[in-house]
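So, could you explain the following?
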Amino acid sequence: MDRIRRRRITEVGDGPIEVIADRDRPHGNSDDRDRVVRLLKGLTEKERRVVVLRHYFDLSEARVAEELGIARGTVKSTLSRALSKLRVAVDDLQHSHPLS
């Protein structure tokens, strides 16, 4: 099972963002998927990979570091920077398209 999961993580991590957003989930809709894709496109490739592996696949920082071949500290700093960018992007999105 771990071998299968490792293969899938690598494939998704290297694939287009749309592949990640289109995975079957019991919640969400196409508008949510579109927003996620747009937000993730605002990140660098490395930031996207760290965010997806850490939060979408729920991997530990150590496991993300192992998967990407980077130091754990790099995972932490990259994730922090990416989440800051995403917070700003979400705020901008909410201010430009307020919910009715």
The chain is about 75% helix and 0% strand.
